[in-house]
Amino acid sequence: MPYPEEMVTPMRRELTDHGVTELKNAAEVDSFLDPEGGTAFVVINSVCGCAAGGARPGAILALQSEHAPTKAGTVFAGQDVEAVERARHHCSQVPPSSPSMALFESGKLVWFLPRHLIEGRDPQTIALDIVNAFEEHCAPSDA
Amino acid sequence: MGTFHDHMGELHGITVVVSKHDGSTWIGRCHSEDAIEVILHDADLHDPALSDEDTEQWLQKAKQFGHWPKVSTIRIARPEVSNLVRLAESTPGHGGPDSA
Predict the structure, then answer these.
(1) CA B60, CA B92: separation in Å to the nearest integer?
(2) Taking CB atoms and an 8 Å limit, are B87 and A95 in contact across chains?
(3) Is A112 helix (H, G, I), strand (E, B) or coil?
(4) Other CB atoms within 10 A of residue A34 CB
(5) DSSP letter assigned to residue A55
(6) How far is CA A43 from CA A40, B8, B9, B14, B95, in A?
(7) What SS3 state is found at B2?
(8) Chain B residues closer than 8 Å to A115 by CB
(9) Contact (CB, 8 A) for A23 and A83
(10) Rounded mean pLDDT of A7-30?
(11) Are residues A32 and A104 in contact, defined by beta-carbon separation less than 8 angstroms?
């Protein structure tokens, strides 16, 4: 059962206030992860404490880095069921968890940060993992 | 920092590996653990007798990408537990059976 929306709204806004696009249904997720659309970062948000203490602030920090992708989106687990199911469909090779984060290149999953690597870690450490993924997948190559 | 439910213990809400003396291993989100039992949610079981994969291979995949939540809730009697560790902190030989 979803949580009351008034409780969840601040958790959504923590990301959307930093330029992250909220994806509310399957069509929005598919459009966001369009194979022609380049690199896209997706945060699977949740109400749990590790989302508040680690995932959201870590993602926000990482999105300020030099090679962060221009496309950053979010779906909310337990709230926007259709959008989350669709996002997980695009990551079907990895187990579902929330909060979690994923990086896509041309619609294909290239990096995933599962919940257990968010739990108990501080935002700076989480951000470093994300920035490393951005460096690997989003930075222009030297060639 | 775990979750905001501090009264539930430091592993509440944390994904853990529970190794058992019989050689099987559970991964799940810890609800609680005490001298009586360990309670996990959204858990998966590895039994080397029933799997082509050995325990370390299974744990290594889970450590990289997470585990498949196949069992909603499982209660494991504490005397059956040989080791309990966070998945993120498990290391080869320290997440498997009788590695404590």
Answers:
(1) 8
(2) no
(3) strand
(4) 13
(5) I
(6) 10, 27, 27, 19, 29
(7) coil
(8) 15, 66
(9) yes
(10) 97
(11) no
